[in-house]
Design a protein that fits this description.
Layout (H helix, E strand, L loop, with lengths): L1 H5 L12 H23 L5 H16 L5 H33 L1 H7 L1 H12 L1 H4 L2 H29 L5 H5 L1 H16 L11 H6 L2 H10 L7 H6 L4 H11 L5 H14 L8 H6 L4 H16 L2 H6 L1 H7 L4 H29 L1 H25 L6 H17 L5 H9 L5 H31 L1
Helix pairs in contact: 2-8, 2-10, 2-12, 3-4, 4-5, 4-8, 4-24, 5-8, 6-8, 6-12, 8-23, 8-24, 10-20, 17-23, 17-24, 19-20, 20-21, 20-22, 21-22, 23-24
Length: 443
Amino acid sequence: MAEEVLIPSSGKITAHLTGSLLAVAFLTSFGSSMLYGYNLAVVNSPAVYIKDFYNKTVVSRNGTGLSADTLTLMYSLTVSVFAIGGLLGSLVVGMLVTRFGRKGTVVNTSVLVFIAGSLMGFSRICGSPEMVIIGRFITGIHSGISLSVVPMYLGEIAPKNLRGFLGLVPSIFIGTGVFTAQILGLHELLGKEEHWPLFLSVVVVPTFIQLMLLPWFPESPRYLLMEKHNVHATITALKWYRAKCNIQAEIEEMQEEQRSLSSVETLSVWKLLRDDTVRWQVLSVAVVNIGMQLSGIDAIWFYTNDIFENAGIPTPEIQYTTAGTGIIEIIAGVIGCFTIEKLGRRPLMVGGFAMMGICSAGITLSLILQVHLLFMRYISVGCVVGIIAGFCIGPAGVPFLVTAELFKQSHRPAAYIVGGSLNWVSNFTVGFVFPFLQVKATQ
């Protein structure tokens, strides 16, 4: 293959890792992927304050407060509406990346974060729970787009032997986003009642930094050549992203793929689902994306404090225990990033899910036995850490990476729509149903 001639595999990741590649991977992940992790965890620590705000607002409007069930429903909607927005974002990503390009989509959709941050930041001043819910919905749209377009962008600018490494950088930043929300949620920082609107709106900061720097970097060379037919811009982009390499060989490889697809237009979702030649690829993408969410990881991230409280952890220590799990997320993500090219995609996925399954059984057993055996509360905390580590080491990022690798240029946007929509539907199901299951289990 031309790419193998261009960049031979030497087993040393840094051999062909240019500063430009690393900078783009960090910028796109910092300003987009990290927000997904942050928004997953940000509603955890201020949950009591948000519920109290909802109840007081309804009392001021109607004279009577909300019942416990209605308040739980309203808060569940606040949590899970993020996934509804994500579903909408995943459905439009194909149209956006075709029209604006990969980098262009990341840049243009930044406006959604500023709108959402403003709504959530001023919600208490305006006395409007609706602004919180709408803001969460808009951040979900942005995350739904970002979770698809960032891996697509990085997969197309990376040489073959670095595709796995760069493809998992977003998953590290997802863990970093969760950790950032846990740290900022400490009572000493933004965990006080008066600070929760600011806590929700902090998302505008990384997006602003990304918006200032990312436009200076080139678009995906594959997009420029195969969809825009701009050879000059393609050469410029490749020179930017590659070190001293024979970029002509890579251009010829892309042109060969372009000729093979010259009679094939960009597929719609319906045509992709009816294409027998990619049936197993579509099934694989569906399974890994559904499995990623039905593993229950979002229940862990959304309701970590409640889980630790039920496990018997003293209330003053819960926020620090929760923040400590964030370090594990980042470490596990880094391990996955540096081992994926040696171990492969499948072992990281299977191993991660196996670890999560074992720890899920462990936390169930420990919660049952902790009434009689006090030390089991620490076992349950360890199992929560194990679930998070198992997820971040593989299942957190591999589904988005393999979606880019399993499909040609013409099939890729539709494949991301299928995988993303299934991912977000599963995300919504877990986020909405879990608090009711938790209440029933407590009763």
